[in-house]
Specification:
- Helix content is 31%, strand content 18%.
- The chain is an alpha+beta fold and 331 residues long.
- The strands form three sheets. A five-stranded antiparallel sheet has the order 2-1-9-8-7, sandwiched between helices. Strands 3-4 form a two-stranded antiparallel sheet. A two-stranded antiparallel ribbon has the order 5-6.
- Helix 3 runs antiparallel to helix 5, helix 3 packs parallel to helix 6 and helix 3 packs parallel to helix 8.
- It is globular, with a radius of gyration of 27 Å.
Amino acid sequence: MKCINKKNICLLLLLCTLIFSGCGKTVESVTFSNAYDIYETSKKYQLISTEDTSLHGALPYFASNNCVSDGKDLGTDSTSSYVAGASGVFNLTTKDVLYAQNIYAKMYPASTTKILTAYVALKYGDLNGIYTVSENAADQASDSSVCNLKAGEQLSLQQLLYGLLLRSGNDAAIVIAEGISGDVSSFAELMNKEAKMLGATDSHFVNANGLQDENHYTTVYDLYLIFQAAIQNPTFVDIIHTTEYTVDYLDPNGMSIQQVWTSTNKYLMGTETAPDGITVIGGKTGTTNDAGYCLVLLSNNAAGDQIVSIVMKADCRNNLYYYMNELLRQA
């Protein structure tokens, strides 16, 4: 055993006494002039979109109104999940995730992009405002989904939204984008801003119609967040619930033109039947070679709960609806 110097022991005891007594001084509290405030900080970084000061001190957290998932697949063993790249079922009434397959995986949205386009248009546009079709908007590929709009024609925003969501018109999407923001790029910036404010932080959009671009992507969960926000607007729900819409508008010479646009949703058109107990309200389809076959759907289950179901990158149209019916049975 080693000997310990008595002087060192005394010094050690003195040091311990000083530490635990604080040398007899009282510790004073410190107040910071710029202390963290959840409401002000959330506003600063756009984590909330409201200026309502009544929320101060009672700020609702992001997840409080949303279905929340840990990202693990759920229920896929009992379905034909192999026919799609990602999918999910969300009960908006109970705030439960009922089914999950790769819901945070990066996916190309195709024309389901138009859900966000409509959401932004309804937030920033005037339904009665008249928009003129530009050469750029009218110049769409012959094999793409269009409303057959011609340069110089004039339509209201409300009419364009029917063309956007029923006929899935790529030309209508560009007319809306240019009418609200001046050009498609500026409108895409607005789309990204609004998406992030909704919590859709794993998405990025570069156009208003969903035509393929490697920098244009989303996730099942982000689409759920965007769609959930969009259906809070009754006009949006009315449009996606419509099977057929007759539109009258003017050509460049002021002459009347009439078209009939029908929904691309096979449930609404009666060519597909939902499972017993499920009432389909409406939704949005999307298809490109890279995105596959996509469908975002709003339904009510037998209990009257609001259900959002999403399938992305299905391998064919028949499997898209077959698989969607499997998902709806989870509701």
